[in-house]
Amino acid sequence: IRNSIASQEFGSDWTQPIGAVGGSLRVQSAASAGTRLWMQAALQDERALAVHATPAYGTFQPTLPALAVTRRSLAIGAEFGNATGGRRVSARLTGSHWSRRDGAAAGRNVRGSLDAEFAWTRGALSIHSRTIAAALSGGTQPLQDAVLLGGPISAPGYDFHSLQGQQGVSQRVELQRRIPFIPLDLGRFGRVPATLVLAPFANAAWVGGSPVTGPAGDDGWYPAFGMGVIGFFDLLRVDVARG
Fold first, then answer.
1. Number of neighbours of residue 82 by Cβ within 10 angstroms
2. Are 79 and 36 in contact, with CB atoms under 8 Å apart?
3. Residues 191-202, buried b or exposed e (16+ Cβ, 10 A)?
4. Integer Cα distance of 167 and 209 in angstroms
5. 24 pairs with which residues across the strands?
6. Are 91 and 64 in contact (CB under 8 A)?
7. Given CA atoms 211, 216, 222, 225 in this order, what sign does their dihedral have?
8. 140, 184, 189, 192: which is deepest, by most CB within 10 A?
9. CB proximity list for 206: less than 8 A, separation 6 or greater
10. Cα 150 to Cα 187: distance, rounded to the nearest angstrom
11. What pTM was estimated for this model as a whole?
12. Residue 10: in which H helix or E strand, if any?
């Protein structure tokens, strides 16, 4: 819902669509004590997409210039915990063989990724941590396999997916504290609680590795600081960040 409204009204499409035609077979274990394991084999043709839409305000950014390839891949992954319990870890490892559909080149790569969230509560204060990391094996690879950071989740204060490389990590630390606020009466829908959550945060992202690099053409660190405000039954969040 968040992305649909942002996309429709302001052209902020925080996905990275590419064209893909093919199929996959996935085997997954039943969830047990918050743990799930899975394996997936896939065969698909990939290509870049073009924008054929206009938002109410502004314009859409160009889509990712994905390489037109045929890909065979095998991926394994694991998920532990859940975000509502204050602990969630998701890991994935994918091996791929790709070949350009014009026959000009082919190659192999291995890509690993990790997404981990933890929360600790101490009285009225809670501390939240999120780590996002990924790495791609060396050599010239399709851009759609690169590590792409930037935007409100992985690197607030920087343009969406503007930090590009073959390795990358984003670390966010956030403090949350509930404070009094003016109550709002929504009539038959009830009253909005008379509190807000203030959430100051710091984020540091790092990217490295050719053939793709950051927005200034340099690998390295990209820090940011910001403030979040959570309200309206804790369903609405507004962030302001400075890279």
1. 12
2. yes
3. ebeeebbebebe
4. 6
5. 42
6. no
7. negative
8. 192
9. 168, 169, 170, 219, 220, 221, 222
10. 40
11. 0.88
12. helix 2-10
DSSP-derived letter for residue 31 is: P
Structure tokens at 200: 């100051």
| % of the chain surpassing 90 pLDDT | 63
Residue owning tokens 């077979």: 25
Cis peptide leading into 215, omega within 30 of 0? no
Strand partners, 225: 202, 242
> Per-residue pLDDT tens for 79-116?
998 767 789 999 999 999 999 999 888 999 999 999 99
Q: State the CB neighbour count (10 A cutoff) for residue 206.
A: 20
Q: How far apart are the first and last CA of the chain?
A: 26
The angle at the Cα of 164, spanning 171 to 103, to the nearest 5 degrees, equals: 140
CA distance 206 to 216: 13
| Structure tokens that stand for 29 in this block | 């274990």
- Cα 100 to Cα 69: distance, rounded to the nearest angstrom: 4
The residues pairing with 93 across neighbouring beta strands, listed in sequence order, are 76, 112
Residues 6+ apart with CB under 8 A from 223: 202, 203, 204, 205, 243
Q: Which of 171, 185, 158, 145 has its CA nearest to residue 65?
A: 145
